[in-house]
Design brief:
mainly alpha; 5 helices
Length: about 160
């Protein structure tokens, strides 16, 4: 049996585990803050806000790491990318919670018999699709903004 690939070292695994735990706690805290605010649809708003912020941070992180490539040992770059990117920001953002928060109101209404008409079902579905569009397009735009900010702060060109 050959030695494990550098991607599977215990340090990388620990960095991902710790990052994921911290990121998940941060996401939970952000959701709780919005739920306490009493805003209607807070679960979907919290999930969308967290995903957009996480996309922005991931874009900035990856650009910063790319710029540090020449000055930083490869093992350290991998550790930062996996611990902060995959772990922390992966735990902070969540597309499973996004999918649930997007579809839960429509499913609850359908299962509870509250959507008696086709127009009501269409409105609920259109809200869900709008949330999907905002998160996907907004996430790509937020990542681009994060990259742009990292480029600007570093004073360099892409």
């Amino acid at each position: 049996m050959s030695a494990p690939a550098p991607e599977l070292t215990w340090r990388l695994l620990v960095a991902v585990f710790i990052g994921t735990a911290l990121g998940s706690l941060m996401r939970w805290g952000a959701g709780e803050l919005l739920l306490l605010s009493g805003i209607g649809g807070a679960a979907l708003a919290a999930t969308t806000a967290v995903n957009l912020l996480g996309s922005f941070c991931l874009g900035a992180l990856l650009e910063i790491l790319k710029r540090r490539h020449a000055q930083t040992p490869a093992a350290r770059l991998r550790l930062l990318q996996r611990g902060l990117g995959t772990g922390l920001l992966g735990g902070f953002t969540t597309y499973s919670a996004f999918a649930f928060a997007t579809m839960a109101p429509a499913l609850a209404a359908l299962l509870g018999g509250r959507l008696a008409t086709v127009p009501e079902a269409a409105v609920s579905l259109s809200w869900a699709l709008s949330g999907v569009l905002v998160t996907i397009v907004g996430g790509a735009a937020a990542a681009a903004c994060g990259i742009g900010l990292a480029v600007r702060l570093s004073g360099g060109r892409r």
